[in-house]
Write a structure and sequence with these properties.
The structure holds three protein chains of three kinds. By secondary structure, chain A is of the alpha/beta class. Chain A is built from eleven helices and twelve strands. Chain A has two domains: 226 residues, P-loop containing nucleotide triphosphate hydrolases (Rossmann fold, 3-Layer(aba) Sandwich), CATH 3.40.50; 71 residues, no CATH class. An eight-stranded mixed β-sheet of chain A has the order 6-7-8-3-9-10-12-11, sandwiched between helices. In chain A, strands 2-1-4-5 form a four-stranded antiparallel β-sheet. In chain A, a hairpin with a 2-residue loop joins strand 11 and strand 12. In chain A, helix 4 crosses helix 5 and helix 5 crosses helix 7. The chains are: A alpha/beta, B mainly alpha, C mainly alpha.
Chain lengths: 324, 323, 295
């Protein structure tokens, strides 16, 4: 296998607030191959979105990347001047956000927003720009794209709007797209459509995709590998099928058990007791231990990552095969 | 769009009617206008004649209807003091006020919006703190005090600029304008600055608040994620977005400033409408007061109306909603 | 996140307020100035309203001059030979009196109207709020100007004019807050119980409308003081025998061009220090009560 497209080592992004330092991302390492689809799963507040923002250098104050390395095609991104990061955004890496209602500027036509996005990297004639816009909108499944180009975002449905946002992200053929829960705000039927379209799009274009979601089920339909994030750390990773079949970390197990499709009809859904900890006041040791069914004294110390055969977990008491 | 226009026009007409009634009752029904018109030692006969001539003996509603009737025919009555048609009087003073107001509001907007956007973009820097301090001052200081200080510094101490009057004017289309001569501009500068300080503060706050909200929005983040430069993000995306409240306030302030020029015009002896209304209040020249108030109200409503249209043009969501 | 010792909302509020040095200093100035104004007869070297004590030969003397009274006129004297410091202290007294009275009455009238409109709903609400909006589109200064011209000079008349010009701000704020409050589930629930409606208004709705109203009140008291000064400056406020700050400034204005700056400047400084301080306190309260500014 060739060198990975993206290499993240010990990434830490902290938010410096009045109440203290929130360690939103705290020592995250992973790799992403060319054209690979990677799922990043976790509850809200686990730091998965901040991980995405960190990759693009879009962390707003009071947050900043405090340590670690991000290499895209071997080029280090951490510490790169904003101007150079800007040139890479959109062209080498792009991002799609959760809420299609707010990611598009409500007072600009789709054509204008696409024009700006192209213009950020190259100067093309109005005609060529329009042709490219129509092409990319058609690709993401917008019927009659030429006619809709001059519409405003509010004239599109939620699903269509997200398609427009995806089209804009794909506009400059980035090597990698970070999709931050792009289907969460949509109807279930539309979710499935967009998921399927996204999968074939990135396959056709050879774009790598990091799909961030709290929905394990959606991710498993899409991603070849998944990572599970908890309290700013990756607690488990591995090939999707293997992780789903035999989770090692009790947290992954908890997420799986709370999926409705796993329950018998009429049976009460399992849930993980308690709530995710505040990132500004993490419990000592394994941050999951206050909610963990198999926690004991040793969990007061932080577990190291155990790696084995493409899989890895961060737990003192990993679950055994078939425990799910 | 047309339906929306007609609906708004109807509303404007109703409001206009209500205001004219309020103003009429407010100004005419309190006190006795006859004492201003004639000296106390005339005969009872002359007194009664005068009352009858002006219709003061008839019931209030009848007087109001008569007033409305004259109004519709473009007759605002005659000034008790100047003994000339009020409309001519007001029209002759309007250009001076209009000139002053436009200079003040345009200046405040052109300077205040960029300053406010900057303060919203970098809220924690020293320049932003200075900008915000200016806006606090602009809000808190009474206009007349600002005017006095400017006169004191620039006219009395430094002697750079004149303390009052309009200076040389140029006739265009039968109207005098100050801003076309250097001398006139020098005269315009201090009153316009006085008048603009409050609007400057307002524009700074408005633009700052808009910027602060926009800069945290998803669409700005998304634009950055596409690799747009900060310049493009601010000028292409944010400016268009915050222009909606700015246009609104610009219009409203244009109207409000026309009325508020009262104080500034008095201090700088600027021969505009504001000075006229103060003079007519002091001499109880009621027809001028009524006409002025009705005209100001009319202006307000027209500007509100135009702001609504501009609003609809700027915000595609509204345009669709009202179509 | 929260400090343990500041348990009550008021305690937390005060703790947060004391973190802003500017706001604390401004509050101290407000308290000091109001104290001086209230106790003016104790501090003022002269009773400026006692015409018998005025010596015309002492008129328009610069600061530091020792007049016929045998004491130092620290801030000079005005055109009538009044000690300017005394005139300013008494002038502040009038300004504060009028500002607070107008603000309080406008608060009561406006909040009642706004809350009533929000609570009654239907036509009453439309009628009241349309009228308020109409009035708000008119500049307050113009309204106050015309009203004080119609009503004539005097403290009561001036306060009435100021109230009429300002109550609408309270009404709109109260209406906005009360409508938002009324739509909340707990009010709907409380109204569906046999509890009397008035109890819901006083126990639930009004307390929740207070914060924005307090912000409006601070700003409007400052505005009342500025407006009163403006009207007096234009010669439409109070009788000349009891000069407020605005009138002192107006009276001194004509001498400013001849270099006798102190007659206008010192009353002006007193006025703007007071207005500025109230505004700064108001700004801090507003920022603290605005949940959107919280990180």
């Amino acid at each position: 296998m060739s060198a990975p497209l993206l290499q993240v080592r010990d990434l830490a992004t902290h938010f410096f607030m009045r109440e203290g330092v929130a360690k939103a991302v705290d020592g995250v390492s992973f790799e992403l191959g060319q054209g690979e689809i990677l799922g990043l799963v976790g509850e809200s507040g686990s730091g998965k979105s901040v991980t995405g923002y960190s990759l693009l250098g879009l962390v707003d104050p009071p947050g900043r990347i405090v340590a670690g390395s991000i290499k895209l095609n071997g080029q280090e991104l951490v510490g790169l001047p904003q101007a150079e990061l800007r040139r890479m955004r959109g062209r080498r890496m792009a991002m799609v956000f959760q809420d299609p209602m707010t990611t598009l500027n409500p007072v600009l036509t789709v054509a204008t927003q696409i024009k700006y996005a192209i213009g950020a990297h190259e100067s093309v004639s109005a005609k060529a720009g329009r042709a490219r816009a129509i092409d990319v909108l058609t690709r993401v499944g917008i019927p009659d794209a030429a006619a809709r180009l001059d519409d405003y975002p509010h004239q599109f449905s939620g699903g269509m709007r997200q398609r427009v946002a995806i089209a804009i992200a794909l506009l400059n053929r980035p090597d990698m797209i970070v999709a931050d829960e792009p289907t969460t705000a949509l109807d279930v039927s539309i979710q499935a459509q967009i998921l399927a379209e996204m999968k074939s799009l990135v396959r056709d274009l050879g774009t790598a995709l990091i799909w961030i979601s709290h929905d394990l089920a959606a991710v498993s339909a899409l991603a070849g590998r998944i990572m599970v994030m908890y309290a700013g750390r990756i607690v488990e990773y591995g090939p999707t099928a293997a992780v789903l079949r035999a989770p090692r970390h009790p947290y992954t197990r908890g997420l799986l058990d709370s999926l409705p499709m796993r329950a018998e009809p009429g049976q009460e859904l399992a849930q993980i007791p308690g709530a995710p900890p505040s990132l500004a006041a993490l419990p000592p040791g394994c941050p999951f231990h206050p909610r963990c069914p198999s926690a004991d004294a040793i969990c007061q110390t932080a577990p190291a990552t155990t790696a084995s055969g493409g899989r890895g977990w961060r737990c003192h008491h990993p679950l055994l095969d078939g425990a799910a | 769009m047309l339906g929306f226009l007609i609906q708004r026009l109807m509303q404007a007409a109703v409001v206009m009617l209500a205001i004219s009634a309020l103003v009429f009752v407010g100004v005419f029904a309190i006190g006795n206008p006859i004492d201003v018109l004639i000296s106390p030692d005339v005969t009872q006969q002359i007194r009664l004649d005068t009352i009858a001539r002006y219709g003061f003996d008839r019931p209030l509603w009848e007087q109001y209807l008569a007033f409305l009737n004259r109004l519709i025919h473009g007759d605002f009555g005659r000034s008790f003091v100047f003994n000339m048609p009020v409309l001519n009087l007001i029209l002759s003073r309007l250009p001076a006020t209009l000139e002053l107001t436009l200079a003040a509001v345009l200046g405040a907007t052109l300077i205040g919006v960029p300053l406010g956007m900057f303060a919203g973009y970098r809220p924690d820097g020293v320049p932003s703190r200075i900008i915000m301090a200016v806006s606090v001052l602009g809000f808190a200081l009474p206009t007349f005090w600002i005017g006095l200080m400017l006169i004191m510094v620039f006219a009395v101490q430094l002697g750079w600029l004149p303390a009052g009057g309009r200076g040389e004017t140029v006739h265009i289309l039968g109207v005098e304008w100050s801003f076309l001569t250097l001398n006139g501009l020098r005269h315009l500068f201090l009153p316009a600055l006085t008048l603009s300080l409050f609007r400057l503060a307002l524009m700074i706050r408005l633009a700052r608040a808009g910027m602060r909200e926009a800069i945290l929005s998803d669409y700005v983040k998304f634009a950055r994620a596409q690799g747009l430069s900060e310049m493009k993000v601010v000028c292409g995306h944010v400016l268009k977005n915050i222009s909606i409240p700015i246009v609104t306030v610009f219009g409203l302030e244009l109207a409000a400033t026309l009325a508020f020029a009262v104080v500034t015009e008095t201090i700088f002896s600027w021969p505009g409408l504001g000075k006229l209304i103060i003079d007519s209040i002091q001499s109880l020249d009621r027809p001028v007061m009524v006409a002025y108030l009705v005209l100001v109200a009319f202006l307000f409503i027209m500007i509100n109306f135009m702001v609504d249209i501009a609003y609809a043009a700027l915000d595609p969501r509204l345009r669709a909603g009202r179509a | 996140m929260e400090k343990a010792e500041a348990a009550s909302p008021l305690g937390r509020f005060c703790a947060e307020f004391s973190e802003s040095r500017v706001a604390v200093a401004a509050l101290a100035v407000v308290v000091l100035v109001i104290g001086l104004a209230v106790l003016a007869p104790l501090f003022a070297p002269q009773d400026p309203y006692d015409i018998g004590k005025l010596v015309l030969g002492d008129a328009r003397r610069p600061p530091g001059f020792v007049g016929a009274g045998g004491y130092v006129h620290w801030l000079g004297t005005d055109a009538q030979g009044r000690d300017l410091l005394s005139a300013i202290l008494y002038g502040l007294r009038i300004s504060v009196q009028i500002g607070v009275a107008a603000g309080a009455i406008a608060f009561a009238v406006g909040a009642t109207l706004g809350a009533t409109a929000a609570f009654m709903g239907g036509r009453v609400e439309i009628l009241i709020m349309r009228f308020i909006d109409l009035q708000l589109s008119f500049p307050a200064i113009l309204l106050a100007l015309v009203l004080s011209a119609i009503l004539g000079q005097g403290k009561g008349q001036l306060i009435a004019a100021l109230v009429a010009a300002q109550y609408a701000y309270f009404a709109r704020t109260a209406h906005g807050a009360a409508s938002a409050e009324r739509a909340k589930d707990y009010v709907v629930a409380a109204l569906s119980t046999p509890m009397p409606a008035s109890r819901v208004v006083f126990r639930h709705i009004l307390p929740n409308c207070l914060p924005p109203l307090i912000v409006v009140a601070t700003v409007q008291i400052a505005n009342s003081i500025a407006l009163e000064a403006t009207l007096s400056f234009l010669g439409l406020g109070l009788p000349v025998t009891h000069p407020s700050l605005g009138m002192l400034i107006a009276n001194g204005f004509q001498y400013m061009l001849s270099g006798r700056y102190w007659i206008s400047i010192y009353p002006g400084v007193a006025l703007i220090v007071l207005i500025l301080a109230i505004n700064l306190v108001g700004d801090q309260i507003r920022d603290q009560l605005n949940p959107r500014l919280k990180r």
